[in-house]
Each structure stands twice: as structure tokens, then as C-alpha cells.
Design a protein that fits this description.
Strand order of the largest sheet: 5-4-8-2-1-11-14-13
Largest sheet: 8 strands, mixed
Distance between the termini: 59 Å
Bound molecules: zinc ion
Strand content: 15-25%
CATH topology of the largest domain: Immunoglobulin-like
Length: 836
């Protein structure tokens, strides 16, 4: 936006000492100056700047330089103005490999023989490239990068592009110079140094590599296979070929998020990439496919075309989330990914967005802290759900041609949401921007009140909020398809507060939001709901519609508009419904209520939970059947876990037997392991606890290791859970994995009370680990783990604590937590579930 300085090219060299974890860097940035200036401001934080100069029109001028720690800026002040034109800015600097999980950081890996090996790796999104080298660190300051890295010869060195040449410096050290990157944003730059190994394949002429620490390359085949398939799909879908000559999938032992789309060098947590046919569960396999698909979608959406500023982060993330579902659903239809998208992504976005403390998708963010806060379910899952709604409304082909137009028009540059709407309007002739603005600029979503009187259908909308004392104004432009009992399908755009529709004939029921394609809820009167209940029982409605009816009704119960008992009555209609997402949703909800509630409500959740899950489980059993759907394996383990939680005796004792057998011969289906371990912990004692910590410390396969870790938070005895919490901060547990314990404790009705005092007592340590850069999102995770709390005393105490101990970058998460606790409290109070 009128920036007088444009970076064009970075020649960046780093000389990295992996023994002392220091590096020397120098860079020459070619900049284009559009106005004369005596001041140049770059971003930099935590680096020592040793020299700066500019070569402009044949003169070399040395500025005064100053670091502004607060603003994370390096200010170069020149004595006189530098003229317009293209100039070379030289900066040398020194830095340290960081301990956190952001910037240029070190990751520790211990080999089988107990040897410690270090990896140096980067995570720059959103605003941490500046922690590694001084740069113009904004997504629209795109440039090309020529990167050289000097390190010991024993290390493999990786960057976005393939190596161009390697020059030996002495016996021990060498410099790897990489090919020039395409024009791209700083947050996508990558370097990795480590004793990596890799397996390699090719898609067309593109080298596809799975990169990992030693001994793991045999686990890369599935990720590589997905990559080849998905690249082909995306090239066809977008009509633009993948523009780099290689793509690395890098599995890292320490990593803050799930994965990061560095162009040509995608980084993952090991658990998001490593697939071992013998030991990986179905749910993990699906996750790997989805994460790979998500990151690959970014190669186009995000990397080739990038948002101008982080307020449009959702453009990247919603799109990659939606696209990943599309590509995986295409290649693995048996996984029913669109259904899973609904019960996972859309449902969790609807839940978060029904808080008064949610935020609009198009968020007003300025500082890096504010940017870090919006990597959440709104930017990813709500946005993705809106894209599904829009695609359904415009039609698949029109939507795709709009996207193709958008990508080809804006490649290698930056955009806002408006550019996407313009391309879609062009192809659809529908005022997309106007419709979507109502969803992007407003927080929340509508609930539609449905009144049916014979042929007259009256719809009215207002914002849906769980805490009703908040503002419920707002009008959304809602594309919707309504189905009727006599078979008519009505597609309309509801643009007004209230809409009347005349049906072709008298109807006993209508169902809004056909296919649950829209991001809204519906509320029916008793008569219509009864009629719909019959349709559910007889399975005359599709699975998504059946899922949606109970999900909306549950939201009404959580908002205390109806008693919880009404929801319990309603789900009797699903008794013989064995659809994956329906069973998953209902069982999960009953378990959730049981965990949180006391007294009558808890008894009721338990009774319904045992009845419901036993019936579903009776049809599935412990053993995998021939020709069963792959998702049944996931459902089986969920039913077993839920029944164990409700205290169902036969499942609990079967779990013990299976564990005993497993301890003897190691045989246990990977899909059952998590569930069986939790059954054992529920009945275990301090001896069992020791067994699990022993297994955790010995285990090398990452998914299994994390199962052993997580189960430590599931014991009933408070002293064991306390021990587990303390253990999560020990050197045996990687910082990034701490949440496997806090998350389980937060969902453990016997021990959730321990979590908040523990956070308070260890806050200095937690802040030290997660207080800097993008790592703060991990601190946000711990805060979220408290969302099962129900007491107003806790709400007050948490609020007061953070007033005394301010942390930038978690304000929104905190406000959402406090609101959630109040909502939980009210729900229990109204439904006879408060703790005595
Ligand atoms: Zn993403």
C-alpha cells in the first residue's frame, strides 16, 4: 500500500555452528526505491546486527542502525536521502539457534543408542522470519531468494529449492548454494540442517522426497503416494502446474503446529507424516492424508497466490482445509470425508462461533501477537464451511472456473478476499461479494426460526448465541435449500430478516439446510420436529440431514432454550442408525455431558450413554469383520472408550484381558490400542502408571508413544494425574507433546480440578516455553484444555490471574474460555447437574 520500498532479491548466506548453536549471516537485498528516503525500516528481532551499508548509484553509504525491540524493527538512518532506483542493501548479523519452536530453532533427537543429535530448522509463519534474518517481513513483500548455507559435511542441508552447487571449505565444512526461489513471501522461506535420511520418488519431473531422522525412511511411502496423487489432482483442478522442481516432506521431532507449507519444503510433526502399516491406526492414516492434502493445496493457495495481509489469513487456511477434504474424498471415498468434515470442522466452528467472544473471519489484526491469535477454528473451519456453502450454491463447475481464473490472474502476487469474489462473480454472474461480506465481516452465524402453517412457510433469522444476554442482531445472506414432505426442493437466497415462502402444497414438515451445506442452524416448532423425528427413525432423510437435526437441537439445549431431557428423548429416534458421524456425535456428546455434570444430569447422561453405545457396539463387536468399512474401526474404538468411561463392566474387563495379552506377546490391533489403554488406566493404580511411563519412554513409533503419554492423564486417582502433569514438564516429554497430558486431564472428570492450579503453579515455566513468537498458540491450547470447567469461582480466579499475569497473544482464547465456563455453569444449573 504505497510502500516506497520493494525488496526484489535476497542473497542470503548463513554459516551455522551446530556445536555452539550460533550462526553468522550476511545478506544483500536488492531493493527498489520509489521515493527518495533517508530511512529504511526492516523487521528484525533478537539478532545482533554487525554491519549495514547500502550501495546506491555507485556510492556506498553506511547508515546508523537501531533495533526497536518493541516493534521488532531494524531502523537504518542515513545522513542524506537515498535517490530512487534499484540499490543493494548489505547487512551482516549474528544469531542463535532458538530453544522455542519459532524462528530458526534447534530440535533435539536421541538415537536408539542414546546419542544426542541436533537438527536446526525453521518455522517462520506468520512473523518469525525476522528472528532469523533481517527482512521485510510482510506477506506482500514478495521477493526471490538465493540461499547459501554453510555447515559441517556430516549434515544434510535443505531449503525451498534444490541445491545448485556444494563447495568444500575445509575437511569438515561445506557450503551448499541453492537455486533461486520463485517470487515468494518471507514466511515461506525454509532451511533445515540435520543428519537426515530420505526416500525419493518422482511425480512427472518433480522430485518428491520424504525426509526424516535416521531409521525412519521406511515409513514415508504412504505420504509420498498421497503427494503424487494429490499433486496430479491439484494441477488438473487449478489448471496451473506445480511450479518448483522438487517437493520435500520433512518429518521433524519438534514442531509447534501440525505442519507448515514452506514452498517446496513442507515441515510436519512426525506424527503427521509417518505411516507404519503394522502400527498406524486408521484415524491416524486419515489424518496423514488430510494434512498432506492441506499443505499441498497451499502450494497454490497461499504460496503462489498469497493474502495481502493477515486479516485474510482465512483465504489461505479455509481454502486449504476445504480443498484437502475435496481431494481426499475423491481418492478415498470410503472414508466419507465430507460427512466427517461436517461432524468435525463445521460442528466445531459452529460451536466456537456461538460465543459472543468469537471474531469475524475478516479480523482486524495488526501486531504479530494479534496475527498469532487468529490461527483458529474460525479462520480454518468456519471459512472452509462457508466455501462449501458457496460451492453448493454456485455449482461445482462454476466455482472451479472462478478459482482457476483467480489463480491464473494473481499468481506470484497478493490478493484480498475481494479478488476471489470478483473472479467468482465473473464466472457465476451472482453478487458473490455482497453475499459473502455478510459472513466475513460479521461475527457469528444465524439461527432460523421456522414456522409452518399449511402452505405458508415463514422464516426469520437472528444471531445464534449460547449466552443470550449478548447482542443477537445481524442479517446474513443465506443460500439455502429446503426439502418438503411432498418432494419439492426449494433453493432460495434469504437476504432479509423475515421471509415468507408459499409452498406448492400443504406440508407437514420441511427440512432446512438440506445436506447441511449452510453455516447456520434451524429451529422448528414441536409439531414439525415430531414429524421430522419419524423421518429420522425411518431413515427417510439423508445422513447429513439426520445428523444436523440432532446437532441443532443439542445447541438449543446448551443455550438453555430447551431442557437437556428433550435432547435425550429426541435421540431415541437414532437407535438403529449406525451411520458413522451420527454415532460419533451422539456418543461423544453423552460422554461430554457425563464428564462435566453431576447429580441427576450425570445419571441421565450415563443411562442414555450406556444404552446408546451398547446398542451400537453390539453391532460392531471387538473384532474387525471381513468387508467392514474402514471407518467402523474408528467407531469401534470410540464406542469402547465411551462405554469404559460410563463404567460398563464387561467392556472394562475385556479391556484388561486384551492388555494382559498385549503385554505378553505385543499383539493388539492399532485401532484398538488407544481405547484399550484408556480402559486399563481407568482401572489402574500406581503400578499401572509405572508400566505406561516405562512403555512411553521405551517406545519409538511416534503414534504409539503418544498413546502411552496421553493415557497418563486418564487415571482416576488424583495423585497419579498430578504426577502425570508434573511429568509433562520433565525432560522425557517434548514441549510440543505436553498437551497430550493436559488435554486428557481437562477431559478427566476425576481430575480436571487439578489442571488450573497446576497451570498457575507452573506458569513461569509455561510462559518461558511458549511465550515467544508463534509458539504462543501452544499456550492458547493449554488454556483451551480448561474448557470443561463449570464453576464460577474458577472463572473469576482465571480472569484475575491473567489480569495480574498478562501474556500477549492469548487474549481471545482467554475470553472464550471464560465465556465457556459461564455457559457450562448455567447449563448444569438449569439441568440439575451442578456439583453438590
Ligand atoms: Zn494451512
Amino acid at each position: 500500500m504505497g510502500n516506497p520500498i520493494t525488496p526484489l532479491n535476497y542473497k542470503l548466506s548463513l554459516d551455522v555452528d551446530m556445536k555452539y548453536f550460533r550462526y553468522f549471516g550476511e545478506e544483500t537485498i536488492t531493493i527498489e526505491l520509489k521515493e527518495p528516503t533517508d530511512k529504511i525500516i526492516l523487521n528484525s528481532v533478537g539478532l545482533e546486527i554487525t554491519r549495514c551499508k547500502i550501495t546506491a548509484n555507485g556510492d556506498t553509504i553506511t547508515p546508523k542502525h537501531q533495533l526497536d525491540k518493541e516493534k521488532e524493527e531494524l531502523v537504518l538512518q542515513f545522513e542524506k536521502k537515498i535517490e530512487v532506483g534499484s540499490h543493494e542493501l548489505y547487512i551482516s548479523f549474528e544469531g542463535q539457534l532458538l530453544d522455542g519452536l519459532a524462528g530458526f530453532y534447534k530440535s533435539k533427537n536421541i538415537t536408539k543408542d542414546g546419542e544426542i543429535k541436533y537438527i536446526a530448522t525453521t518455522q517462520f509463519e506468520p512473523a518469525d522470519a525476522r528472528r532469523c534474518f533481517p527482512c521485510f517481513d510482510a506477506p506482500d513483500m514478495k521477493a526471490v531468494f538465493e540461499i547459501s548455507i554453510t555447515a559441517d559435511k556430516k549434515f544434510e542441508v535443505i531449503s525451498n529449492m534444490p541445491a545448485l552447487e556444494t563447495t568444500s571449505i575445509d575437511k569438515a565444512r561445506q557450503t551448499v548454494r541453492f537455486q533461486q526461489t520463485p517470487k515468494m513471501s518471507t514466511y515461506l522461506v525454509y532451511f533445515g540442517i540435520g543428519e537426515f535420511e530420505y526416500s525419493e520418488d518422482k511425480y512427472k519431473g518433480i522430485a518428491v522426497r520424504f525426509v526424516c531422522t535416521k531409521g525412519k525412511k521406511k515409513f514415508g511411502a504412504f505420504a509420498i503416494d498421497c503427494t503424487k496423487k494429490f499433486l496430479e489432482y491439484y494441477e488438473n483442478y487449478f489448471g496451473v502446474p506445480y511450479p518448483l522442481p522438487k517437493i520435500d516432506l520433512i518429518a521433524l521431532p519438534d514442531f509447534s503446529s501440525g505442519a507448515m507449507e514452506n514452498w517446496g519444503a513442507i515441515t510436519f510433526r512426525e506424527a503427521g507424516l509417518i505411516y507404519d502399516a503394522k502400527n498406524t491406526s486408521t484415524v491416524r492414516k486419515q489424518y496423514i492424508a488430510e494434512v498432506v492434502a492441506h499443505e499441498l493445496a497451499h502450494m497454490w493457495f497461499g504460496n503462489l497466490v498469497t493474502m495481502k495481509w493477515w486479516n485474510d489469513l482465512w483465504l489461505n487456511e479455509s481454502f486449504a482445509t476445504w480443498m484437502a477434504i475435496k481431494v481426499v474424498a475423491h481418492h478415498y471415498p470410503e472414508w466419507e470425508f465430507w460427512n466427517q468434515f461436517l461432524s468435525g470442522d463445521t460442528a466445531s466452528a459452529l460451536a466456537l462461533d456461538s460465543l459472543g467472544t468469537s471474531h469475524p473471519i475478516d479480523a482486524d489484526v495488526k501486531t504479530p501477537h494479534e496475527v498469532n491469535e487468529i490461527f483458529d477454528k474460525i479462520s480454518y473451519d468456519k471459512g472452509a464451511s462457508l466455501l462449501r456453502m458457496l460451492e453448493t450454491f454456485l455449482g461445482e463447475e462454476v466455482f472451479r472456473s472462478g478459482l482457476q481464473k483467480y489463480i491464473s490472474t494473481h499468481k506470484y502476487s497478493n490478493t484480498t478476499a475481494g479478488d476471489l469474489w470478483a473472479a467468482l462473480e465473473d464466472c457465476s454472474k451472482i453478487p458473490v461479494a455482497k453475499i459473502m461480506d455478510s459472513w466475513l465481516k460479521q461475527t457469528g452465524y444465524p439461527i432460523i426460526d421456522v414456522k409452518l402453517e399449511g402452505q405458508k412457510l415463514v422464516l426469520s433469522q437472528k444471531r445464534f448465541l449460547l449466552e443470550q444476554n449478548k447482542d443477537d442482531k445481524g442479517i446474513w445472506e443465506i443460500p439455502m435449500t429446503i426439502v418438503t414432505d411432498y418432494g419439492e426442493e426449494i433453493s432460495v437466497l434469504m437476504e432479509e430478516k423475515k421471509k415468507e415462502i408459499k409452498l406448492k402444497q400443504k406440508a407437514n414438515w420441511v427440512k432446512l439446510n438440506h445436506g447441511q451445506a449452510g453455516f447456520y442452524r434451524a429451529k422448528y416448532d414441536k409439531k414439525v420436529l415430531e414429524a421430522l423425528k419419524t423421518q429420522i427413525k425411518e431413515k427417510k432423510l439423508g445422513v447429513q440431514d439426520r445428523w444436523g437435526l440432532q446437532n441443532d437441537l443439542w445447541a438449543a439445549a446448551k443455550a438453555c432454550e430447551i431442557p437437556a431431557s428433550e435432547y435425550f428423548d429426541f435421540i431415541s429416534a437414532y437407535e438403529s442408525d449406525d451411520e458413522f458421524i451420527i454415532c460419533q456425535d451422539i456418543a461423544g456428546r453423552l460422554a461430554g455431558i457425563y464428564n462435566m455434570a453431576h447429580g441427576r444430569l450425570q445419571e441421565s447422561a450415563k443411562k442414555h450413554g450406556i444404552e446408546y453405545c451398547s446398542k451400537i457396539f453390539a453391532g460392531i463387536g471387538w473384532e474387525k469383520k471381513k468387508k467392514e468399512k474402514e471407518n467402523t474401526a474408528i467407531l469401534r474404538s470410540q464406542m469402547i472408550s465411551a462405554l469404559g468411561l460410563f463404567g460398563e463392566k464387561s467392556v472394562l474387563s475385556d479391556g484388561l484381558k486384551r492388555f494382559e495379552a498385549f503385554m505378553k506377546d505385543g499383539a493388539l490391533n492399532p485401532d484398538l490400542r488407544g481405547a484399550v489403554y484408556s480402559l486399563v488406566a481407568l482401572q489402574g493404580d500406581s503400578k499401572t502408571y509405572e508400566i505406561f511411563t516405562g512403555l512411553f519412554e521405551k517406545e519409538e513409533q511416534v503414534e504409539e508413544k503418544l498413546r502411552f503419554l496421553g493415557v497418563l492423564g486418564r487415571f482416576r486417582q488424583k495423585e497419579l494425574v498430578q504426577k502425570a502433569l508434573d511429568y509433562s514438564l520433565s525432560s522425557a516429554v517434548r514441549s510440543q507433546d505436553l498437551f497430550y497430558i493436559t488435554g486428557r486431564v481437562g477431559a478427566n472428570r476425576h481430575a480436571i480440578d487439578l489442571l488450573w492450579p497446576w497451570i498457575k503453579n507452573n506458569f513461569t515455566e509455561l510462559k518461558k516455553r511458549f511465550g515467544e513468537g508463534h509458539s504462543v498458540s501452544l499456550l492458547g491450547h493449554i488454556i483451551e484444555d480448561l474448557d470443561g470447567l463449570t464453576r464460577l469461582e474458577d472463572e473469576k480466579d482465571i480472569k484475575a490471574f491473567f489480569e495480574r499475569n498478562k501474556v500477549d497473544g492469548i487474549a481471545m482464547k482467554l475470553a472464550q474460555l471464560l465465556e465457556t465456563i459461564r455457559i457450562n455453569h448455567r447449563f448444569l444449573e438449569k439441568n440439575d447437574g451442578v456439583r453438590p
